[in-house]
Design goal:
Strand order of the largest sheet: 1-2-3-4
Bound molecules: zinc ion
Number of helices: 8
Helix content: 25-40%
Length: about 300
C-alpha cells in the first residue's frame, strides 16, 4: 500500500467560515465558532470519492464530555463529533446516531482535525518504554501524520484478505479467502463494554462483526462458532485480518515508532484519539479509556508477523 504524504486534509484554508447551517437540531445552539471543510478518508456512503465534512473547534460542552465517567471510549468519540461536526457528507448537523454510523477511519480522522483546530498541531505524548520502563516524552506533530484516502477502486464493504494458514473445517477443507467490511462507530459501540476488561475478546468480536465471508464457511456456522474460528487461526493470520481493518485501511496513520531516550529500545504505539484533548497525560495501565476505537491486542496494532 502506498502512503501518500499528508498534505493537509482540508479542502479550504483552515478557518474559512462555511456560513450558518440551516436546520439546527435541538440542543445545539446556533452560532459558535465557524467550521472548516475536511476531506474524509472514506465518506458516509461507500464509493463516494472525495466526501467532506465540516467541523469546528471544541467548546466547553465538549470539554465536559471528556470528564464524563459514564461515556465509554466509543460513545465519547460519538458525542465529541456530534458536538463539533456541522456537516458530514450531505447530512447537516449530524446527531450521535449519524456519527455512530460513520466508518471508524472517518471518525478518527475527523476527531484528529477537531483536535488540530482546537489545540494546534503539537501533541505532548508520554510513552512507557517496554524494555526499561522509562517515560519517553515525545512531541508529536499531528499535521505530519500520513493520510491515506480510499482508492477509487476500493470498496470499504469488501476488503479481501488471503490468509497464509487459513482455517480447516471438519471435512478437511482449508478456508483462506476472507472478505471484510471496514468497522464503523456502531461496531466500536458494540464491543465497548469489554474493551478494557478483555481487549483480545473485544478485538475478536469487532473483527467477527466485520467478516462478510470466510472462505465457504456457511454464515450460520460463522454466527455460531465465529469467535472459535478466529481463535483457531495462527497469530500471523490474526494479525493479517487486524491489519486489514486498521493499519492498512484508509485513514490517518496513527501508529508511531518510538525510540527510548534512556535505553535506545525501539517500539511502536498507537496514538489514541481520545487522548488528543488532554495535553501530556500519561495513560494509566488500567485506564478504562485505554483504547478509543480499536482494542490493542497481541495481534492488533503494532503486531508484526
Ligand atoms: Zn527504555
Amino acid at each position: 500500500m502506498s502512503t501518500a504524504p499528508f498534505t493537509g486534509s482540508t479542502g479550504v484554508p483552515p478557518g474559512t467560515p462555511t456560513g450558518a447551517s440551516p436546520g439546527v437540531s435541538p440542543g445545539v445552539p446556533r452560532g459558535g465558532p465557524p467550521g472548516v471543510v475536511v476531506r474524509l478518508p472514506i465518506g458516509p456512503d461507500s464509493g463516494e470519492a472525495g466526501a467532506t465534512a465540516v467541523v469546528r473547534k471544541m467548546r466547553g460542552h465538549e470539554e465536559a464530555l471528556l470528564h464524563d465517567p459514564d461515556l465509554g471510549p466509543a460513545a465519547l468519540v460519538s458525542h465529541l463529533l456530534a458536538g463539533t461536526a456541522l456537516r458530514i457528507g450531505e447530512c447537516e448537523r449530524p446527531g450521535v446516531e449519524a456519527v455512530e454510523a460513520m466508518y471508524s477511519a472517518d471518525r478518527n480522522h475527523l476527531l484528529l482535525q477537531v483536535r488540530r483546530l482546537t489545540l494546534g498541531d503539537r501533541l505532548a505524548a508520554v510513552y512507557a518504554c517496554p524494555a526499561c520502563a522509562a517515560r519517553v516524552r515525545v512531541i508529536e506533530r499531528l499535521d505530519e501524520l500520513p493520510f491515506v484516502a480510499l482508492e477509487e477502486t476500493g470498496d470499504p464493504e469488501a476488503v479481501e484478505v488471503t490468509l497464509e494458514d487459513g482455517w480447516t473445517d471438519r471435512e478437511g477443507t482449508t478456508h483462506t479467502e476472507v472478505v471484510l467490511r471496514l468497522p464503523r462507530g456502531s461496531d466500536e459501540q458494540f464491543v465497548t463494554t469489554f474493551v478494557a476488561s478483555d481487549p483480545v475478546a473485544a478485538a475478536d468480536a469487532l473483527l467477527l462483526r466485520c467478516v462478510v465471508r470466510f472462505g465457504s464457511v456457511p454464515s450460520s456456522e460463522l454466527d455460531a462458532f465465529g469467535l472459535r474460528i478466529l481463535r483457531d487461526l495462527t497469530l500471523g493470520d490474526r494479525a493479517r485480518l487486524q491489519r486489514a481493518l486498521h493499519e492498512d485501511a484508509p485513514g490517518t496513520r496513527m501508529l508511531r515508532g518510538i525510540e527510548c531516550t534512556d535505553c535506545g529500545a525501539r517500539f511502536e504505539r498507537q496514538l489514541d484519539v481520545t487522548d488528543f484533548f488532554v495535553a501530556g497525560r500519561e495513560k494509566a495501565p488500567d485506564s478504562n479509556r485505554r483504547s478509543s476505537t480499536w482494542p490493542g491486542t497481541s495481534t492488533g496494532a503494532g503486531a508484526t508477523s
